[in-house]
Amino acid sequence: MTEEQKRRHGHRPQKQRKKQELPEIFFCGDPHGEFSQILSAARDYKPAAMVILGDLQPSKPLEEVLAEAMAFTEIWWIPGNHDTDSDAIYDNLWKSPLAAHNLHGRVGNVKGVRIAGLGGVFRGQIWMPDGKPNYASVGAFLHRVGKNNTWRGGLPRRHRSSIFPSVYENLSRQHADILVTHEAPSCHRKGFAAIDRLAMDLHVKWLFHGHQHESISYGKYSGIQVCSVGLRGIVNLRGEVVVEAQIDPKDAAALEARGDAVVETKGETSILVFPDKSGSRGQGLSGKVIAQPWRSLDQTSNRPKKG
Questions:
Q1: pTM over 0.85
Q2: Residue range 233-246, pLDDT digits in tens
Q3: CATH architecture of 23-246
C-alpha cells in the first residue's frame, strides 16, 4: 500500500511502544550471617526490591535482622545449603513472616518482574543432575526412609536445602524474566548444565547465582546474561556494583593454591583475578568465559545513584 492509499483509506501509523522500564532490583551474594551491607544499600539506594541468593544464616528471625531494610524495600530470598545447618537458623528463616517471600521452586511477582527461584544444592543422596535420582520427590524420600529418619515429621533438616527433581521439573514448566539460584550454571567450573537448561526452559533474560563466593561477569551465555554475585556483594540488574564483594580468606587461599585464581593486593584492597579459560565452560558462551571481577569496573560511572 502506497502512502497515498494509506491516507485515502484512513490508515494511521502505529505508535511505537515505549520500552517498559524495569524497577530497580538488587541481587545480594551470600550474607553468611552478616547483613550490614544489605541494610546500608537499602537505606542509601532505596531499590524496589532486594533478592538474597542463599546462605543467609540469620542469628535472629529474618524480619528482625532486616527490619531497617524493610522500611525502604521489599526483601525476597532463596535458601542456601547452610540455611539448614541448625534448628535455630532454619526457624529464623522458615518461621519468619518473610518465609512468604522465599522464591525456591516457584515464580514470584516482584514489583511486576517475574523472578524464578531455585535454592539449595544438588546432593548425591537425593539427585545429581544427568544421573538417575535416588529420590524423585519429597514423598518418595519419606516413603522409603521411614518415620525414624524424619525431622519434625517430615524431611530431615539437611535435605530441606536439597534440590529434588520434582521441584526442578515443576519450575522448568513455567516462564520468568529472571532466574535466581544458589548453585551455579555450567559456565562456572563448579556449575551444572541443569541450571543452564532450567534458565532456557524458563525463557529468562538474566540469571544471578551465589554459593561460590566469586564475583564474575560471564557475559551472555546462550543468550542469557549470567552473573555470579560474590560473598556479601550486591549488584543490580544492569550489572552495576552496589556493594563490592568480600574475599573469604579460606576461599582465596584454596583458589590460589589450585591455580584457579590470583590474589592481587592494591593498598588496602585485595581482589581475586580469574584467568580466562575459554573453551572449558560449556557451549554457547560468547566472549570471555570469565571476565574481570566486579572490582575492575569503573567505580564512578558504574555505580547506581543513591535514592
A1: no
A2: 999 998 888 999 98
A3: 4-Layer Sandwich (3.60)
